[in-house]
Amino acid sequence: MQRIANLLVVKDNHVLLLKKPRRGWYVAPGGKMDPGESIYEAAVREFTEETGTTPINPHLKGVYTMMIKDDVDKIVKDEWMLYTFVAHDLEGVPFETTAEGKLDWHPIESLQTLPMAEGDRTNLLFAVSESGMQYGTFFYTEQFKLLNEKIQKSVEGGYLNDRK
Q1: What is the per-residue pLDDT for 67?
Q2: CATH code: domain of residue 37
């Protein structure tokens, strides 16, 4: 199972997003964890590699399982874990473009409409607008059409809700 960490910086009512060339979808900068690396180390390293900046005081906002199902038999073809972090500032000036795609600041409300995987939309909107932690499982087709999601949320000292 692949482990991936991403990190969303929120600053001045904007978020720093990476537009991936393959699908033209927007993502929070991030990528695969190295062996022995903590999720925190991976999120900071990947963010720094992809943006040329350093996030200030990032913290974990969500833990997700992503499941890819065969379009015909609905058999699980791939599965990975995603750890989403958020920070509210950064040091440095982000690259404009990298080998990974184009970086740009977008108004927070654009997370509602920018092209992206629907599971990413769910977790990034949570990261910028709600307190606590979110956990979930997203089921996709091989073309990344969202089939189903199961979401749980919690705050320290209490439980928020469960959505299916």
Answers
A1: 94
A2: 3.90.79.10
Q: What are 91's strand-pairing partners?
A: 54
The residue segments making up the domain with residue 112 are 2-63+73-132
Which tens digit of pLDDT belongs to each residue from 32-85? 999 999 999 999 999 999 999 999 999 999 999 999 988 777 788 889 999 999
> Contact, 147 vs 141, CB < 8 A?
yes
- First-to-last CA distance in the chain? 24
The two structure tokens encoding residue 38: 């903590």
pTM for the whole structure: 0.92
Question: What span, in angstroms and rounded, lies between the C-alpha atoms of 154 and 160?
Answer: 5
Name residues whose C-beta falls within 8 Å of residue 84's C-beta, 6 or more positions apart in sequence: 5, 6, 7, 8, 28, 60, 61, 62, 63, 64, 123, 124, 127
Helix (H, G, I), strand (E, B) or coil at 93: coil
Say which residues have a Cβ less than 8 Å from residue 77's Cβ, sequence separation at least 6: 68, 69, 70, 142
d(CA 122, CA 151): 9
Structure tokens given for 26: 């927007």
Single-letter amino acid code for the residue at 80: W
Structurally, the chain folds into a number of domains equal to 1
